[in-house]
Amino acid sequence: MVFSSIVFLCIFFPAVIICYYLCPKQLRNFFLLLASLLFYTWGEPKYILIMLFSTVFDYCNGRLLEYFEEKSDKRIWKRFVLVVSIIGNLGILCFFKYTDFILMSVNSATGMDLPLLRLALPIGISFYTFQTMSYTIDVYQGNVKAQHNLISFGMYVCMFPQLIAGPIVRYSDIAQEVDVRKASFSLCASGMQRFLLGLGKKVLLANQIGALWKEISGLEASDLSMSLAWLGALAFTFQIYFDFSGYSDMAIGLGEIFGFHFPENFQYPYESKSITEFWRRWHMTLSGWFRQYLYIPLGGSRKGTVRQIFNLFTVWFLTGLWHGAGWNFILWGLYFFVLLVIEKLFMQKLLNHMPAILQHIYALFWIILGWVIFACDDLSMLKSYCKMLIGIDTPVVNQLALYEWTTHAVFIGILALASTQLMKKTCENIQNKISSACGEAVSFWLKSIWCMLVLFLSMAMLVSGSYNPFLYFRF
């Protein structure tokens, strides 16, 4: 089940909210756990045992870490428990996500014919594995106290709003709210508005421009041109942003409805003036996780340039691998590693002396090219597509390119504006003027009407059976 589905919007979502608020406060964690298990079981019933095992496994590890912390003569056992937790979590993740990739790579490199296991990837395993690992590491480091209530811990791990596509919510982010949280009409209304904003971004923007990328990427090479290839790259650039940030908005909004404050995951990344800045704004919970639990423990930037480059290589190799079991994802991670190293060595100094518009163009060029690497899971397709982007063996423009550009130019412009703060600030200014002139109540109802319009249009799109992929579902 995904948020942008009729079943979720018309049945699961309203039923869970109503039942949640009817539940006594002491039973709400238990109810949210049951609802989350139902949500997960709906899409992947056979793999629910893996998630439940991870939950119990790291609950026990947290309690053991707390026990050995109180026994000064048993600190070595504390380290042992942490190692067991990390190896156990990574072992499960690697087995399901990378086994077939490794076997295929060995077969390709050696000519062997090792049989593939053909394992289906459990939904959300990359996200909940990182969450449970962050919990045991934080307990080990003394940043949080171990959770004693298995139901409450299970609710944290399995909570459906952020289960299958993040944001990656570290236990320390919501530790105070797991057992005690406040729910109010204003918080629920704010969460509902945030959810509907995300739904609109996903269904009305990401899905529509995604259909263009699907069309262009499916064309024969003879039908493509340089300008059409760039239009396709732009389409995917906007699709992945509005798809993923839309899902994050929906997750954060759902969290608010239930009284949680999840961390932000995006901060208008396409406004960035460098690749370094881009990764401070894109998927912030993932980059923050790697920084906190890998980059800094490896030494960060504290041990000289050579060591810092090695640390960056490790982080970005694993970042690429985290996104998927494919050479294009590894290449994508290493691509950003190279760009970040170049910026740290000299490029950032040059950028600081450039006009802001040139800095934006520089960043967007490399960001768009990076998304082409990400999107092309076939390396031969990637090679062919990159050749078209620079006009090798293909015309600059053809009749199809002219048609597609003229058809989608206005929509591309709308997406460009929507991916910046300009549209948000404009809407806020209008809302403030309405509030000043007509009062807060009128402003609230106008905003509610706008949200209902977004819901109506999104539902109409979904009912019509329009293109509705979910890019991060496989991670």
From TrEMBL:
It is found in: Cell membrane. It is a multi-pass membrane protein. One of its GO terms (biological process) is alginic acid biosynthetic process. The chain crosses the membrane at residues 6-23, 30-56, 76-96, 116-137, 149-169, 321-342, 354-374, 405-423, 444-467. Keywords: Acyltransferase, Cell membrane, Membrane, Transferase, Transmembrane, Transmembrane helix. Its main location: membrane. The keyword Repeat does not apply. GO terms for molecular function: acyltransferase activity. One of its GO terms (cellular component) is plasma membrane. The keyword Transmembrane helix applies. Belongs to the membrane-bound acyltransferase family. This is MBOAT family protein.
